[in-house]
Amino acid sequence: MKDIVWDKTLSVDVPEIDEDHRRLVDLFNILNRSVEQGDSADYIEAVMDELIACTVWHFRHEERLMLKYAYPGAGDHKAEHEELIASAKALQQKLLNEGRTVVGEDLQFLEHWLTGHILGTDKDLGAYLCERM
Ligand SMILES: [Fe+2]
Q1: CB neighbour list of residue 45: distance below 8 Å, 6 or more residues apart
Q2: Residues 79, 70 contacting (CB under 8 angstroms)
Q3: How far, CA to CA in Å, does 15 sit from each of 24, 52, 59, 69, 109?
Q4: How far apart are the first and last CA of the chain?
Q5: pTM (whole model) above 0.90
Q6: How far, in Å, from the CA of 40 to the mean position of ligand 1?
Q7: Which domains, and CATH codes, for the chain?
Q8: Which of 31, 33, 72, 99 is exposed most, by the fewest CB atoms within 10 A?
Q9: d(CA 74, ligand 1 centre) in Å
Q10: pLDDT digits over 41-100, tens only?
Q11: d(CA 98, ligand 1 centre) in Å
Q12: What is the rounded (10 degree) CA torsion for 6, 128, 77, 24?
């Protein structure tokens, strides 16, 4: 599948959040290319681990900003973070159970997993924060 191209539509107008999101997009693209190039299952698994670990770290970052600026939507936003991490871990477990590596449909899931949250919930957070930071 195509790489995710970073452009203005993905920006939430908060530079420190955009910076994290760009890193996550980069990692997604590394994963995408490693699947396309037929890298080893161990390597692909390592990239996916890194993507999920960076996402966990990034969610903590957003949650700290929500606390600092008393974001009213923090509860729902945090709940969405928990769901996203659980769904990515469920995918890892599924791959393990099925004894296979990442394929196209998993990448489509992860693309939606990443951009869906940025374009939805994070845009709302960005609109709130950029007026207060
Ligand atoms: Fe978020």
Answers
A1: 92, 95, 101
A2: no
A3: 14, 21, 15, 16, 26
A4: 37
A5: yes
A6: 31
A7: 8-129 (1.20.120.50)
A8: 99
A9: 9
A10: 999 999 999 999 999 999 999 999 999 999 999 999 999 999 999 999 999 999 999 999
A11: 30
A12: 20
